[in-house]
Amino acid sequence: MFHWLEKHPFFFAVGVFIAIAFAGLIEILPNFAQASRPVIGTAPYSTLELAGRHVYIKNSCNACHSQLVRPFKSETDRYGHYSLSGEYAYDRPFLWGSKRTGPDLMRVGNYRTTDWHENHMKDPHSVVPGSIMPAYKWLFTNKADIDTVYAEQLTVAQHFSVPYNQDVPMRDGSVKNVKMAQSLSEAHEIALEEAKAVAVDMKDQDVKDAVSRGEIPEIVALIAYMNSLK
Amino acid sequence: MENRPLEYDYTIAKMFMLTTIVLGIVGMLIGVILAFQLAFPGLNLILGDNLAEYTNFSRLRPLHTDAVIFGFTLSGVFATWYYVGQRVLKVSMAESKLLMTIGKLHFWLYLAVVAAAVFSLFAGVTTSKEYAEFEWPIDIGVVVVWVLFGMSMFGLIGIRREKSLYISVWYYIATFLGIAMLYLFNNMEIPTMFATSPAGETGIGAWYHSVSMYAGTNDALVQWWYGHNAVAFGFTVPIVAMIYYFLPKESGQAIYSYKLSLLSFWGLMFVYLWAGGHHLLYSTVPDWMQTMGSIFSIILILPSWGSAINMLLTMKGEWQQVAASPLIKFMILASTFYMFSTLEGPIQAIKSVNAIAHFTDWIVGHVHDGVLGWVGFMIMAALYHMAPRVFKREIYSKAIMTAQFWIQTLGVVLYFTSMWIAGITQGMMWRAHDEFGNLAYSFIDTVTVLHPYYAIRGVGGLLYLVGFLMFAYNIYKTMSSRPVEERELQSASPMGA
Question: Whose CA is closest to B372, among B344, B334, B406, B339?
Fold first, then answer.
């Protein structure tokens, strides 16, 4: 049979394809729907949080930081509760990372503050002596791209039924309603409101001034995202 | 019929040889910079504060991985295909104008996509998925390039004189199919520019932005099914294709066992794809998938070692060639590193080992003993074998080859040994508890302790880069300062001159 295949490239290619496609079908498909359901307490990202997520991706933070707490005592001691599949239901793309040059950030919002992040991104050594992380000063001047964030929110709400403007259940029994704008200008307003809430706790005068002018520096968005990771 | 050897046309092979070398230098140089940035963080500012955004570790890291995978390695795969393909199929590219056109188009579009990719990654336009960072416009470019590669491959197979496909061709076909399937499914994404707001606005935001069709755990599963097997079909399958052709050619020995090559090929095809789950051990994907990934990773030793042993036994009775010829040295070391790396991988895929190894530098070490030791050495060997034949000139210097071999071998050894120590040290420190059950170390303790190993790794990487520059120089001098032979060299070998 193999000799015959080696003389018939088409059937050879078909054979190879069947051999390699088999595993994906068995391993990936069966659990697909199950794995995409959110757990209680997981809400979609707000406009500014999503903008911060874009900043995180743009700077490849995931090259050094994971967002996956494994079920070991040493990890739950260090980072908090181990990760649950449903907590990632709105993560497109997933940001688990594959290398912890720096610590895991899955629940960084539980134990770091706006103030800490501001100092850290400007000069990591000021809060973590011995850190090998570079400073990210350009985040203080670059502006967050709210337009693209809004386009993404519209896309996921339409194609993947992400529940914006709907009540989603929280762990304490309350409900949360994450607002998505009806128009681009409203999206900017929503993001700016969120940005003001973050900038209040920041020290950098240029950032504060920018926010009061109606601009959103990337650092503000990134901190909003960091604070939402719980 | 005329009784003279076929004149093969190496136009396209030469072009891809050039990009193999240039992109190899780029990818490895960025790698060395990254390595030293981890040891000496001040280097994140090598071009000053104003350009810090473009020279810092996180922005450069995808450029390194993609330059080595899609630049250096893929160019090497294409270069060798346009050389090996003609020879084992006994047909010249020049016999078909259409194929030549497709081949040239393949090269130039490839170059355009590479340029676009470099530009976009520097700008921070990325999907964040490892080795699939490109946004949808570049993805479409990649697909077009790949289809052209397929057309030129199957076109050549279609007009072949030798009816039976040689082992190398099996692997090239598998490379084409595997990458096509993986790349398509992992990059399923929806461009956000098509969204319409309730207020009727369209074309909002960056036109190149997209959102993944999969979320969270599913996205991770598809990504590592891709990520692991991009390694399979980019770093393993086509490199095996090369060694099956170049080792017998260079050594004058026949392949040791046809049956073993058959077993290894079909075994590799079937088993490899299952093993992706070992990237997700102890994550939120279902336990049975993790276990499958673990088990199949161990089974994977069989087909991997099958190929490697087949190569080593091909040298049976001719081991003096390893001492005599630097080119044989490269290939034998490559297959040895292949064995080593395909044993190390399955060990790391065992759940209890993975609990320590995952997220640490041990994984980085594993990737690099595979890529530097196996992929890099084999591609350089292939180009060294091809150069005298495509340029009709003898290799410029054997002394450089030998020196390069030892410098790079030392570099690889420094690289993986330092990363083993770094990885296991860090993995053990993360999990250490004191006598009261509290964590023994804060995270930063587990970072500062790695400094000496990061420095050693940087030196290892630098040595490898130096060796690669010697290789580039040697090829350049071969092209430019050696006399042109009248005919294509039929049995040229660096040691034959």
Answer: B334
